Input
Amino acid sequence: MPARSLTILSADASTVSACQEAAKIAGNAVGEVAHYADCTALTTAGTIDGLVVVDPSFMAPLSIQEWALGFLREHRVLLFLLTTGNDADADGLARFVGAQGALGLPVEAKDLASYLSSPFGMPNAMRPEKLEVPDAATLGASIGEILKGREPEARERFLSAVADSETGLHTPEFWEHRLEEEFKRSSRFRFPLGLAAFTWEGEVGDEAMLDLAGILLLDTRDVDVATRIGPRTLVAMLPHTGPEGTRLFAERVLQGIDSRGLRDLLGESLEVSTAVAVAPDSNLANSHAFLAKVLPQESEMSA
Output
């Protein structure tokens, strides 16, 4: 594996020292190491690639998750967020915004080195596992706990940027951001990435829309990302899911929809069709081409 550069974003001397030690332990996997103590210095660095470790005080008072959303739009990196809170909750939220994961403070050099030396930005011994079906209330509580004590405006900005309060689905803007990031990872590391779209004819009311969103979310894992695209389509992105897994997911969701006997605004039975696609695929130039494989031609991204 070619050596990747490491960028450390922290003003804390002990954190910087531990990250530098982790780079030494990682050996040939890590090349040049750069360090920035504040956001002002970072703005002069230009485009950053490789590995990035950031501690939560670096961009304060902005939340680290809100900062990560913007940073990952501009830089193609494997990002690791340091946390002072519950490691498990923070790790889930870190992956939720597109980072590789979260590590607790103070930094353990050997633990961080395991992430830095992996081709995939995860401990060498780890493999993707099937995750439990998430509970929307639990996920919301976890996000709320991690954001507790932060400025109310920062909390509201972050939550409104990633979640639709009416349906519980992700916002189209956040979903599109995550699709671009996951598509890059799939192409670069050959991870399977599935897309499943569910489209219906006619108009549906708010109650039916909530039912459709709830059925879709019931079958998603915490690493999956689902949104509404246009007035008649829901789409789920399924990291680490190949053709068979994507097909089975779509079948389960359709079965759930059929079992509810949903109707459109005219009182007619709601007919839902599905389309699936899987990356990596050498015929796909970018994430937009990937998404186009599962969408009706007239669909457009909308809130």
